């Protein structure tokens, strides 16, 4: 396969457009192959505008002033009222606070003509903070303040403090601050150990589906890491250990979020965008179509934007078309980043095409091989529209009428059950005359009286000639055998057509067999609510006769009636009822349980009943236990009292004859016998 490339370089003239050196490209259709990962998210011009609006809010303290002023500077925006900002910094400055000094010094560095006064005491406070005993945040802010104010600093001592602190604060934010701090030190210092932390942090990144790469700490930590990594790498002039795909994944992760929760988060995104656009090693390329990716004979060129992640043009870029379907000629508009590709010079057929471009001209460019998709649109016309009514037994010759698009046939066509209505036509490209086969080609018949519509699909033959034939005898069920005048429409549609067609071609009178026609014509409408379905419940069973119900009720109440009769006849032992609290509570609880059963039957469900049953049953159980215990004690005491009233002799058990019984009458043993119980 012969492959020639078109290379276009930047023009250096002002206010002019210049056709650049180009070779015509004869290429075969390049299907999508294994493509390198390209950025799916970046800061569009509208995103940059919203980011600037967020950072332009009125600041209330030194921290918000730092985020706003420095963040706007990172985006390349103008900071208004430098003098007013400087006065605000000086009025809010606390010379004894490292945080206050850091925010004021960094902000004053971003504007012109603003100097922060520094005393010896302030310098001593900053130098004292550069210690392994200080937190990483304090070390970073102290070193950054000393650097911004131009004060002398022992870089190697700072390296020692950072190294010792990393061993104590082994987390992402602490190590990232160490990278940012090292970027402010002298290049003669031994920064190799800290530089290696970039690779260690890269290993901690989480890969999400091969598209995103981020820390679990969130967006801000990821963006600050990117800023710190490129800042330190630029400082020591050593490429960071990041692969091209990892850079693109970081870009997708940082710029996928289009709304930011705080000034700090917005500032981190702005800083990362600046670092990815202005570093010595990796500059991601964004290639996108300006407007819809559609070309046609009226708009033959496709405009491509070649920018960085902040949608700023890459003025030094060259565009190399690597694969396409047709001849292409590119024009570059100087200082606009817009490249024009002429797709229509070779009259391509309508459809979708894929092509690949390579952006060159800078060794730093990342993701510079981009696959794009373009739609070639055209206009369609209907030709050779022939209408005829064919007799089935061929007893009458066929008469064909031709109708020119977009006119309507002057006379209607009539077809009955012995005839077929036929239509044939072709669809061609208006610009090239090439025959087309759009995705959607329909024939619609609309009853002018009832509004009924019947739609048929028109299919092309091997010569791309569309034919449609209606057999009224076989198709009568689709028309519900409703005779009348039908409007014949041709519908043509496709995503690549600029002029979809809805053409009222002619009127057709269809006559069906009279005896098969329904007595009452009811038009069939597909898009109306269907009648509501009324659900019919099962009819309840008939109630039993009143005599049966009354008899059953009497049988249920008969035991209670018998109880009342026996009470009146024999008497009830009411005098033995105890009015102690436990007895009363037990009987009340028992009555409550019976009442609960009734309420369960009428109002409650099982779960509600169980809840109340647990409460009432528990109280009734305890009260009943107490009542029965009292009755048992009372019964025992009653028996003991009756035992005390029995004669003493009856309580002496019968004893066996004693061997000494023969001596019972003797006077010697009388005292012993009398003392025996």
From TrEMBL:
Pfam families in alphabetical order: Ribophorin_II, Ribophorin_II_2nd, Ribophorin_II_3rd, Ribophorin_II_C
Keywords: Endoplasmic reticulum, Membrane, Signal, Transmembrane, Transmembrane helix
Any Gene Ontology CC annotation: oligosaccharyltransferase complex
Organism: Dicentrarchus labrax
Gene coding for it: rpn2
Major location category of this protein: endoplasmic reticulum
BP GO annotations: protein N-linked glycosylation
Pathway listed: Protein modification; protein glycosylation
Entry's family note: Belongs to the SWP1 family.
Lineage: Eukaryota, Metazoa, Chordata, Craniata, Vertebrata
Protein's cellular compartments: Endoplasmic reticulum membrane
Residues passing through the membrane, by range: 552-572, 584-603, 609-629
Span of domain Ribophorin II C-terminal: 537-635
Functional note: Subunit of the oligosaccharyl transferase (OST) complex that catalyzes the initial transfer of a defined glycan (Glc(3)Man(9)GlcNAc(2) in eukaryotes) from the lipid carrier dolichol-pyrophosphate to an asparagine residue within an Asn-X-Ser/Thr consensus motif in nascent polypeptide chains, the first step in protein N-glycosylation. N-glycosylation occurs cotranslationally and the complex associates with the Sec61 complex at the channel-forming translocon complex that mediates protein translocation across the endoplasmic reticulum (ER). All subunits are required for a maximal enzyme activity.
Quaternary structure annotation from Swiss-Prot or TrEMBL: Component of the oligosaccharyltransferase (OST) complex. OST exists in two different complex forms which contain common core subunits RPN1, RPN2, OST48, OST4, DAD1 and TMEM258, either STT3A or STT3B as catalytic subunits, and form-specific accessory subunits. STT3A complex assembly occurs through the formation of 3 subcomplexes. Subcomplex 1 contains RPN1 and TMEM258, subcomplex 2 contains the STT3A-specific subunits STT3A, DC2/OSTC, and KCP2 as well as the core subunit OST4, and subcomplex 3 contains RPN2, DAD1, and OST48.
Domain Ribophorin II second: 285-376
InterPro entries membership: Ribophorin_II_2nd, Ribophorin_II_3rd, Ribophorin_II_C, Ribophorin_II_N, Swp1
Signal sequence interval, chain numbering: 1-36
Location of region: Disordered: 656-677
Highest taxon in the source lineage: Eukaryota
Bilayer topology: Multi-pass membrane protein
Domain annotation Ribophorin II N-terminal: ranges: 43-277
Protein name: Dolichyl-diphosphooligosaccharide--protein glycosyltransferase subunit 2
Record domain Ribophorin II third: where: 384-509
């Amino acid at each position: 396969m012969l492959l020639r490339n078109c290379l276009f370089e930047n023009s250096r003239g002002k206010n002019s457009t210049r056709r650049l050196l180009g070779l015509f490209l004869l290429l075969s259709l390049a299907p999508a192959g294994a493509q390198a990962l390209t950025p799916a998210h970046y800061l569009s011009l509208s995103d940059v505008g919203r980011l600037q609006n967020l950072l332009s809010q009125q600041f209330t303290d030194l921290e918000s002033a730092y985020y706003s002023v420095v963040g706007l500077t990172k985006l390349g925006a103008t900071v208004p009222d430098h003098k007013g900002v400087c006065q605000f910094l000086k009025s809010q400055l606390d010379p004894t606070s490292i945080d206050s000094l850091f925010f004021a010094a960094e902000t004053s560095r971003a504007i012109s003509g603003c100097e922060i006064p520094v005393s010896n005491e302030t310098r001593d406070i900053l130098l004292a903070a550069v210690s392994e005993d200080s937190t990483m945040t304090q070390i970073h802010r102290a070193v950054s303040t000393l650097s911004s104010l131009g004060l002398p600093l022992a870089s190697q001592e700072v390296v020692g403090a950072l190294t010792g602190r990393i061993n104590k604060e082994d987390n992402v934010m602490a190590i990232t601050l160490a990278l940012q701090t090292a970027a402010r030190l002298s290049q003669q210092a031994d920064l190799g150990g800290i530089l290696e932390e970039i690779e260690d942090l890269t290993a901690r990144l989480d890969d999400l589906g091969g598209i995103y790469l981020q820390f679990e700490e969130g967006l801000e930590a990821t963006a600050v890491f990117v800023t710190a990594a490129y800042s330190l790498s630029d400082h020591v002039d050593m490429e960071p250990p990041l692969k091209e795909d990892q850079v693109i994944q970081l870009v997708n992760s940082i710029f996928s979020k289009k709304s930011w929760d705080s000034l700090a988060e917005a500032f981190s995104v702005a800083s990362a965008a600046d670092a990815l656009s202005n570093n010595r090693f990796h500059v991601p390329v964004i290639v996108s179509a300006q407007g819809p990716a559609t070309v046609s004979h009226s708009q033959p060129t496709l405009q491509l934007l070649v920018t960085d992640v902040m949608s700023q043009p890459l003025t030094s870029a060259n565009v190399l078309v690597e694969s396409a379907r047709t001849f292409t000629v590119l024009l570059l508009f100087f200082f606009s980043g817009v490249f024009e590709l002429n797709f229509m010079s070779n009259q391509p057929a309508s459809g979708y095409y894929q092509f690949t471009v390579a952006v060159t001209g800078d060794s730093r460019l990342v993701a510079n091989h981009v696959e794009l998709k373009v739609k070639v649109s055209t206009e369609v016309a209907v030709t050779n529209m022939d209408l005829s009514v064919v007799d089935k037994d061929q007893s009458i010759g066929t008469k064909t009428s031709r109708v020119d698009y977009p006119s309507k046939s002057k006379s209607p066509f009539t077809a009955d059950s012995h005839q077929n209505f036929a239509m044939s036509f072709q669809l061609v490209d208006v610009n090239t005359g090439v025959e087309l086969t759009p995705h959607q080609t329909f024939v619609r018949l609309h009853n002018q009286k009832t509004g009924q519509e019947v739609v048929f699909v028109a299919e092309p033959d091997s010569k791309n000639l569309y034919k449609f034939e209606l057999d009224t005898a076989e198709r009568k069920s689709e028309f519900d055998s409703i005779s009348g005048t039908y409007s014949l429409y041709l519908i043509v549609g496709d995503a690549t057509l600029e002029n979809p067609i809805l053409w009222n071609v002619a009127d057709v009178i269809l006559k069906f067999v009279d005896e098969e026609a329904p007595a009452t014509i009811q038009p069939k409408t597909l898009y109306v609510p269907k009648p509501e379905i009324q659900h019919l419940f099962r009819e309840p069973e008939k109630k039993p006769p009143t005599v049966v119900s009354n008899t059953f009720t009497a049988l249920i109440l008969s035991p209670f009636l018998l109880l009342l009769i026996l009470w009146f006849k024999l008497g009830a032992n009411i005098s033995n009822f105890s009015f102690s609290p436990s007895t009363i509570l037990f009987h009340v609880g028992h009555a409550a349980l019976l009442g609960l059963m009734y309420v369960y039957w009428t109002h409650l469900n099982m779960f509600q009943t169980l809840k109340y049953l647990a409460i009432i049953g528990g109280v009734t159980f305890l009260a009943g236990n107490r009542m029965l215990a009292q009755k048992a004690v009372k019964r025992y005491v009653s028996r003991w009292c009756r035992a005390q009233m029995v004669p003493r002799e009856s309580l002496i058990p019968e004893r066996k004859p004693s061997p000494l019984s023969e001596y019972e009458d003797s006077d010697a043993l009388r005292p012993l016998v009398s003392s025996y119980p």
